[in-house]
Design brief:
The complex is a heterodimer of chains A (about 110) and B (about 110).
Chain A: E1 4-7, E2 10-13, E3 19-25, E4 31-37, E5 43-51, E6 54-57, E7 64-66, E8 76-78, E9 87-94, E10 102-103, E11 107-111
Parallel strand pairs in A: 2-11
Antiparallel strand pairs in A: 1-3, 3-8, 4-5, 4-9, 5-6, 7-8, 9-10, 9-11
Chain B: E1 3-6, E2 11-14, E3 19-21, E4 23-26, E5 32-38, E6 44-50, E7 56-59, E8 62-65, E9 75-77, E10 86-95, E11 100-104, E12 108-113
Parallel strand pairs in B: 2-12
Antiparallel strand pairs in B: 1-4, 3-9, 5-6, 5-10, 7-8, 8-9, 10-11, 10-12
Classes of the chains: A mainly beta (about 110), B mainly beta (about 110).
Chain lengths: ~110, ~110
């Protein structure tokens, strides 16, 4: 079945560590997105990519980095520069026209 | 810039009650409009969509009509169930010079009591 897979579902990080969240899709979508969701809040865009080897900062990119070496994969690294990384992270993808986004099941990151 | 506003929650209803969640938007062009639903600990699932004015999206008893004159896309359901308890997000997408721009509302939490 086609879809978006995020892993791991739960992730714990120590202060000062970098961690990488995985996002893989087999929908053949060009565009991929990373969002952050805090408790009781909406979604905030971190980074997005419309084609391989290209990506753009979203509204809250500071302390995060991404890569898009393959169409299917868009990993997000939460660096030690991110001051408050504890949140629920959602990856999404879409075709490059005016259509809906498809979401993964999310990764909950907790700093311990 | 584009924006989406939806009614503040939480909304608490009894089973079989009528549901309305208001959503209005601001956009520079002709966006597509969506309602997504999020169950606890999960990602967002598309509930319904409408791509042009006067279109009605519908799914699982939920409906919303794209009203360009009032820039609205209100979500309705005639008889809610306990299983409808979730957070509902209104969203728009609009093609930009560089790809596609999604904008989400803040979400409305719905609790349905038996």
């Amino acid at each position: 079945d086609g879809g978006i897979t995020q892993s791991p579902k739960y992730l714990f990080r120590k202060e000062g560590q970098n961690v990488t969240l995985s996002c893989e899709q087999n929908l053949n979508h060009d565009a991929m997105y990373w969002y952050r969701q805090d408790p009781g809040q909406g979604l905030r865009l971190i980074y997005y990519s419309q084609i391989v080897n290209d990506f753009q900062k979203g509204d809250i990119a500071e302390g995060y980095s991404v890569s898009r070496e393959k169409k299917e994969s868009f990993p997000l690294t939460v660096t030690s520069a991110q001051k408050n990384p504890t949140a629920f992270y959602l990856c999404a993808s879409s075709i490059r026209d005016n259509t809906e986004a498809f979401f993964g099941q999310g990764t909950r990151l907790t700093v311990v | 810039g584009n924006s989406v506003t939806q009614m503040e929650g939480p909304v608490t209803l009894s089973e079989e009650a009528f549901l309305t969640i208001n959503c209005t938007y601001t956009a520079t062009g002709y966006p597509s409009l969506f309602w997504y639903v999020q169950y606890p600990g999960e990602g967002l699932q598309l509930l319904l969509k409408a791509t042009k004015a006067d279109d009605k999206g519908s799914n699982k008893g939920f409906e919303a009509t794209y009203r360009k004159e009032t820039t609205s896309f209100h979500l309705e359901k005639g008889s809610v169930q306990v299983s409808d308890s979730a957070v509902y997000f209104c969203a728009l997408s609009e093609a930009q010079a560089y790809g596609q721009n999604f904008v989400f509302g803040p979400g409305t939490r719905l609790s349905v009591l038996p």
